[in-house]
Design brief:
The complex is a heterodimer of chains A (538) and B (350).
Chain A lengths: L13 H27 L12 H11 L2 H11 L9 H11 L2 H6 L1 H8 L3 H4 L11 H15 L10 H29 L5 H15 L10 H13 L7 H6 L1 H10 L7 E2 L9 H4 L5 E2 L5 E2 L9 H5 L5 E2 L16 H19 L31 H5 L5 E3 L12 E3 L12 H5 L10 H4 L5 E5 L5 H4 L6 H5 L7 E9 L5 E9 L9 H5 L8 E5 L17
Antiparallel strand pairs in A: 1-4, 2-3, 5-6, 7-10, 8-9
Chain B lengths: L5 H24 L1 H5 L5 H4 L40 E5 L3 H11 L12 E6 L16 H13 L4 E4 L8 H7 L2 H8 L2 E2 L7 E5 L8 E5 H5 L2 E5 L1 E5 L3 E3 L1 H4 L14 H11 L4 E10 L12 E10 L2 H11 L8 H8 L12 E5 L2
Helix pairs in contact in B: 4-5, 5-7, 10-12
The chains are: A mainly alpha (538), B alpha/beta (350).
């Protein structure tokens, strides 16, 4: 194609760079989805803790996220080996600025694709000082992490990505596919094709059991709102709110390569509408704020005179009014201290509600300072037992994992949540050890239990109990029948010291509505680190 | 490429949606014909067996009758008719299955060349390996698959719908997947969409249920339960094993006996092979304690599901009439529970 006689420029044109970036964005979005799908599938089958290749891959995106890893290390007072991967992102950012945002981030990619053209004219100008929100959020997250709180990590873009895929996008797709399949399966000549799809394609994409998540509307709505903010300005989230963007922006200020507009610029302002983050300022001469620039190259393409370059040389330090200053730092510190203090006075982690059943191996009072709220445990849980808490764990425990037995039970032969957790907030346990973890205790409500309350035969809880010794025993009793005479009944009784609280009994209990056997969180799952705050010294 | 105007796009959408919708409605209208592939009554009663002159009848000696077991009539059989039930003892799983099926007249009696065969073992949980006797012995299942393929089956699918965990995991942990694949069969994960609402015309209490489509379509169903303890049913055997092919199982638990018998009128097991190589004597159906497992090294084979369950019950020291589903099954003419009035051939090994 290229004429060998014409010397080819070794440099890529801005258009080529732009295409390259789009390819990179699509590639990383697809990679994110593939990694998500892998965690969705039963990859944990026969996976021992030593052969952790897939686990490593599945955790890769979050381990590359410096905000999550930094805050988690601070709050948990523990440095995970995998967290070192985040230094790769830090190094890239120091070298190339916020390329993460422009080239890799899956949320950023989706926001890039939302059309804003028609809205742009109508929307009011967003004041530039709002850019400070992301820096304030970043500082509050880090200060709160020092105080052992990770609640605001719900605003990290990758955790948002995982949560939304898990609780909103996938269940909706799953339901849609199921409905279409069910309908088409009834058409005789389509049934074989549907059967083929269902046995080959579907298991690779969707979970074995239908995905069920409480508050799907909330998680989906959060993401729709985030995307909808694009109506106010392109990449509104990335410009003004994203705390990871804030962290990378701070690093970007010192990056080696950055966007530079030459002195010969004609000030035609073609670059201004091109820039998705509005990084180009025009006070005095035109210049680009490297803390805001995502290195997307759109300005270079739109510049008619080729005055935008990306040289590799040390940067002048631009301080913008919205950047981090003493006042912002003090405000964030104050907010973090007051906020965490208010949350802690709730004692939610020390006096948890009996319904806060945590995944196996978790110390209930430690989870809040180790969990990054990504929801991967919820993604991988094959029975959908692991749901994300909303208010039952207090505001502090927003979107932390909680088991809801009526939705799903903790499968006796599954240890996936601990394997998939990127920060070991749920400890990785082999199956033998996981089978000894007590997460709760079951109790029978004799006013609702069929053999107790209605003299009807039922042994489902005993049948389902996976404990080899059976934590539910059946007592054979003779009771008076309603019409006279006696009948022999088997009545279940929980042997508390054998019960692990897996919740399969509650899940399968045929009593309508509320189960007649219910699991409560296990009181013993406390590290006791904060016992002094309980006040009654037990 | 021509650009599609919005109007044309909407027209296209409406046309395709309405055609899909009418297809769907057409499917619904003929649902009875299309979906309930009902079995004609003559197929429900066991098909009369015509002895194959080329197949030599097993000449194994008849074991002396154990005290707790019914009298076994020695088979003088002037017609060379096979016994109603064959029991192999004290052998390896594979040789016992082969001998028992051979005694019944060989797999060719049940599987015709080109048949699509479904083997339904009991793979109820993914907790333990086969030694714990919660799931059917893998070599028993593997041998059944081999025999079916040797008889000329076009395909042999093996499936169950575990009540806890996922099928994929249960297939692997039970060891059944490895043996089935070695034998040339296929493990099928039973997907929720393929359970179709099906009428049960012969049912007294259970008149309709969502039954797995492949099972309804198969030419031959071979039911391969493991004999084990169950809190409500006393034991779970062949008739209870069919719970795995229907969707709403909690519903079955009330009036379990009648509903299981009803289900058996619709989902007919052409051959039943009860695995009693290991029997779970307590803490069923999931088990987990090797102390509850008894090695019995017995295989029971019969085309009569009630007879097979009745004989298996005696291995645990129960009488067949202690079981709701055996009584109801016998009442409904699914088979006979009277072990004294059937011809039983015992094949001892070792």
């Amino acid at each position: 194609m290229a004429d060998p006689n014409v010397p080819q420029s070794k440099k890529l044109s801005p258009e080529n760079w732009l295409s390259l970036r789009k390819v990179s964005q699509i590639f990383f979005l697809l990679l994110f989805l593939v990694v998500f799908l892998w965690s969705r599938r039963e990859f944990y089958l026969n996976s021992s803790l030593e052969s952790g290749f897939k686990e490593t891959l599945i955790n890769l995106p979050l381990r590359l996220d410096p905000l999550v890893m930094l805050a988690q290390s601070i709050a948990s007072r523990k440095l995970l080996l995998g967290a070192i991967l985040a230094l790769v992102t830090v190094a890239i950012s120091l070298l190339l600025g916020r390329v993460w945002c422009g080239w890799f981030c899956p949320v950023g990619t989706i926001l890039d694709w939302i059309p804003v053209r028609s809205w742009k004219k109508k929307s009011p100008a967003v004041p530039d000082k709002l850019r400070g929100i992301k820096y304030a959020l970043l500082l509050i997250i880090l200060f709160a992490a020092i105080l052992g709180n990770l609640s605001l990590l719900i605003f990290d873009p990758l955790t948002i990505g995982y949560r939304t895929l898990t609780t909103a996008i996938w269940p909706v797709l799953d339901q849609g596919f199921t409905a279409v399949e069910l309908a088409l399966f009834r058409v005789p000549f389509l049934a074989p094709a549907v059967g083929w799809f269902d046995s080959l394609i579907r298991p690779a994409i969707f979970p074995a059991h239908p995905a069920v998540y409480r508050y799907g509307w909330l998680f989906g709505g959060f993401f729709i709102a985030l995307v909808g903010l694009n109506a106010l300005a392109p990449r509104f989230w990335c410009r003004y709110l994203c705390p990871l963007g804030g962290l990378l922006g701070v690093l970007g200020k010192y990056s080696l390569v950055h966007c530079e507009i030459s002195e010969n610029c004609s000030r035609c302002e073609s670059c201004l509408p091109a820039c998705p983050t509005g990084a180009i300022q025009q006070e005095g001469h035109m210049f680009c704020d490297p803390g805001e620039c995502t290195m997307c190259m759109a300005c270079a393409v739109d510049c008619p005179t080729g005055q935008v370059n990306f040289p590799a040389k040390s940067t002048r330090f631009f301080h913008q009014p919205y950047d981090i200053g003493r006042r912002k730092a003090l405000f964030s510190l104050g907010s973090a201290v007051v906020g965490v203090g208010l949350l802690k006075s709730n004692l939610i982690s020390d006096l948890p509600s009996p319904k806060m059943i945590r995944p196996p191996g978790v110390m209930n009072d430690m989870l809040l300072s180790t969990c990054i709220r990504c929801g991967e445990c919820s993604t991988v849980c094959p029975t959908n037992a692991i749901q994300m808490a909303v208010f039952e764990g207090g505001v502090e425990g927003f979107w932390t994992p909680v088991l809801v037995p009526r939705i799903g039970y903790c499968d006796y032969s599954c240890n996936a949540c601990g394997q998939v957790c990127p920060v070991e907030a749920i400890p990785p346990l082999n199956l033998e050890i996981k089978r000894q973890q007590v997460i709760g205790k079951a109790e029978i409500d004799r006013n609702r239990c069929l053999p107790w309350a209605e003299n009807q035969p039922c042994i489902v809880c005993e049948e389902m109990c996976p404990i080899p010794e059976k934590a539910i025993e059946l007592e054979v009793v003779e009771v008076r029948a309603e019409g006279g005479g006696t009948i022999t009944l088997q009545r279940p009784r929980v042997i508390s010291h054998l019960c692990l609280g897996c919740g399969i009994c509650e899940n399968k209990c045929p009593a309508p509505g509320m189960a007649a056997i219910q699991v409560s969180a296990h009181e013993g799952n406390h590290s006791g680190r904060n016992q002094h705050r309980r006040g009654h010294g037990d | 490429m021509t650009e599609l105007s919005r109007k044309n796009f909407l027209r296209f959408l409406a046309a395709s949606l309405s055609s899909l919708g009418s297809l769907y409605l057409a499917g619904c209208l003929n649902q009875d014909k299309l979906l309930s592939r009902s079995i004609s009554p003559d197929k429900i009663s066991p098909t009369p067996f015509l002895p194959d002159p080329t197949e030599p009848v097993s000449t194994a000696t008849v074991e002396p009758t154990p005290t707790n077991q019914p009298t076994e009539t020695p088979a003088p059989s002037p017609t060379l008719a096979p016994p109603d039930l064959a029991v192999a003892r004290n052998g390896k799983p594979e040789e016992m299955v082969r001998a028992a099926v051979k005694a019944l007249g060989g797999m060719g009696r049940f599987v015709k060349p080109g048949d699509q065969v479904i083997v339904k073992p009991n793979i109820c949980v993914a907790y333990h390996s086969y030694e714990y006797a919660a799931t059917t012995n893998p070599w028993v299942v593997g041998t059944v698959v081999k025999l079916a393929l040797e008889a000329g089956a076009k395909s042999v699918k093996v499936m169950d719908y575990p009540f806890a965990g996922t099928a994929k995991q249960a297939y692997q942990i039970s060891g059944i997947q490895a043996e089935v694949q070695k034998a040339g069969g296929k493990m099928v994960v039973m997907s929720g969409i393929k359970f179709v609402q099906t009428d049960i015309p012969g049912g007294k209490d259970l008149k309709s249920a969502r039954i797995f489509d492949d099972v309804l379509r198969a030419d031959v169903l071979i039911n391969v339960p493991i004999a084990k303890n169950h809190g409500l049913a006393l034991l779970t055997l062949a008739m209870k094993n069919l719970m795995g092919v229907i969707y709403d199982r909690p519903y079955m638990h009330a009036k379990l006996g009648q509903r299981l018998a009803d289900l058996s009128t619709r989902v007919r097991s052409h051959l039943v092979i009860v695995d009693a190589v290991r029997m779970l004597m307590a803490k069923g159906p999931s088990g987990g304690d090797l102390g509850d497992v008894k090695k019995a090294d017995t295989i029971i084979a019969s085309p009569d599901i009630v007879a097979a369950d009745s004989y298996a019950a005696t291995l645990f020291g129960y009488r067949p009439d202690q079981f709701g589903y055996i009584n109801k099954g016998a009442q409904m003419g699914l088979g006979t529970k009277d072990l004294n009035n059937m011809r039983i051939e015992v094949i001892p090994f070792g």
